Amino acid sequence: MNTAALLLSVVFSSIGFGYFIYGKKQQQTLPLVCGLALMIYPYFIDSAAVMTAIGLLLILAPRFIRL
The whole model's pTM is what? Predict the structure, then answer.
């Protein structure tokens, strides 16, 4: 794991933690699930570019998808 991937994993995991807390307090499923995914997926992805693409999709998903 290189430095960029490590830094990105910290950034996306912290954003995911915020989404998780928000989804839990507001009792909304999509932010809760996206928050969990943001905290977990960096463990499985090594490429910084792929990590950035997936992270941005997960961050934007609650904004554009309404359940």
Answer: 0.89
